[in-house]
Fold:
Amino acid sequence: MSGSDEKKGRLARYERMKRPPPMMIQSRDIEILKAIGCEYRYLTARQIHLLFFGGSMSQTRLRLTKLYHSRYLDRVHRPVVKGSGEAVYCLDRKGANILAGELNIDRGRIFWRGKKKALSHDSLEHALKVNDFRVALSIACERTGTARLVGEWVGEQVLRDLRQKVRVPYPSDPDRYIECPIVADGCFGLEFENSLQQFFMLEMDLGTESNTRFALKVRAYKEYLGSENYREIFGERAFKVLVVTASPRRMENLMKTARKAGDRSTFWFTDFSKYTQDGELLPEQLMAEIWRVPADWFALEEDWHGGRYVQIAQPKDTGRCRSLLELAGPAPA
Structure:
């Protein structure tokens, strides 16, 4: 920011003001700080706008800019090939102090940028995609009224700390086992209008995982679902694994891999484009018929290969797409 801009009182776009104008912290500001510091960790202005504001985005951007210049929030930018990337907001020390002091929140529960090592570009993009899903899910439940979130969202780090693992046979050698950790990108529950509840694990796929690795993940989840360790932590609730992919082609590839790995309908697939358009979230679409399951699109057939019969996933393509609301069961007569 140039000295003349600061003298005129304009808020800089890329640099913090040395002497920002005074601001009064409002209750909505506290909620924003809490959401970032205790739940999401990283949020874009668009995500914050959906969660806490209505009307014009300009009001949201102005408020976030003030929180940034007053050092309640810090920000990084999404990587781009040319120009400046979208601002991504995280908590700064001053915001963490407010949450810990005024709201009496345990400092250990608060995430702020100075506390942790900065994320790599790939990790940041993955985190934002997960948060896109979380924000869209929250708004979809609020707007449609067809389901509500049950309990708290359980994040990746909490699941990682549980240290859950299963042993599954290696695809090319059934006598050889590999130990697979169970670490979803998040898990949550939905309660539908008829009071039936369904539990979900989320897998956000950015196209970096090999088919072999994904097949092991499918087998691991299915093994885990029937394990004693799972029942000890989550009880008797069965889960569905929601896989969100980077493209329709990638989705079909992973569906075929899942079917070959023995899954019929535990894994549900969609891609980003089904609930986003031109960078904007379309939350209600998450409850629409945008989900596919392997059994509707691929069938297993035996084929002679390498001196033995192996199962091959062949195209079936019934054209059926499903809604999460189907998991509530048939509508009452």
Observations:
- The chain has two domains: 3-118, 123-328.
- The first strand starts at residue 43 and ends at 44.
